[in-house]
Specification:
Blueprint: H1 2-9, H2 13-35, H3 44-49, H4 69-72, H5 80-101, H6 103-132, H7 136-140, H8 147-160, E1 165-168, E2 173-176, H9 180-194, H10 198-218, E3 220-221, E4 224-225, H11 243-259, H12 266-277, H13 294-339
Antiparallel strand pairs: 1-2, 3-4
Length: 340
Amino acid sequence: MSNLVQHARGLPLVTKAAAAVYFVFSSASLLLRLRVEPVISDDPIHLAGLDPARFLLLRPGFIISYPWTVVTTAFVEPNIVFMLCGLAVLVTVGGFLERQWGPRHYALFLLVVGAVPVVTAVLAVIIVCTVRADSTLLYTTQIGGLAAMVSGFAVGLKQLIPDYNVKLFRGSIGFRMNDLPGFYTLVAPIMFTLLGSLGGVLLVNIGFFEAFVYLRFYKRDGPIHGDRSDAFAFGTFFPEFVQPVVRRIANGVYWAAVKCRLVMSDEGYQQAIDLESGVPVRTNPETGEVLVGEESDKDRRRALAARALEARLENMDTASSSAAAAASGSSGSAAEAFNK
């Protein structure tokens, strides 16, 4: 017990706060439902209106009456088994991500993969109800829990440690973090479908997509937005035999987003990297556009090589100064010993 308390105290601040809110809200929803006697009714909308957890757990039909549930519902899991599993994920994976990104970036990430997928899922349910001309789903669909956050955590782990191997049950089961998002977005929707949870299916897929878009194009690291590396491209989340097709579709969507000024172009992203690293950026004096091509790449490589050479010379000077100081110190000690 003391080890558990010590571990809880050592958690990062945002992780500790998120785990505490999740535990309190989920426990409250469980206790509220246990205290209310079950009601038999053929009207699902009437039953939804009697749910005591509607003050914390979002149902699209009640979003106007309880607008704060857009934020609270991500931290509400009315199933005790899922609640305990979610708490373990928040403490372990969430703590790791916060240590890597820092509290401010991690808190913003929680907001992106927590509240934004909820709003998107509500819009999806409204569209389905409009097409079907049936409003029942607005009240029977519960949108909440950590499904979207877990998708986001899986995407974050793939970005940070894609080659890390996880071994379970004494090595009998193993997988790479690179494969975790694909595995989760395949298995979790099947599980939620069997449980009859439309909200869970929506949150898993929407959370995955929005986490990728945020980490790929928007997460700030100084003047740099996102991670445009080939290892984190959208196609790498899919099996190799479908990657060419996915890559073509993703490229088309990307260029449409660039034209609409929703995301930064590759040239602008490279310019931000060059400015951050101190590499001079060649521009057209007439148009002001960034020049890309063979000459620009040569200049970039020369500047990087010059910076590396300067750093190496500084290290050599530091090492020489340290050696000289050590030699003078040892000779002084020897002279003192001789005089004695």
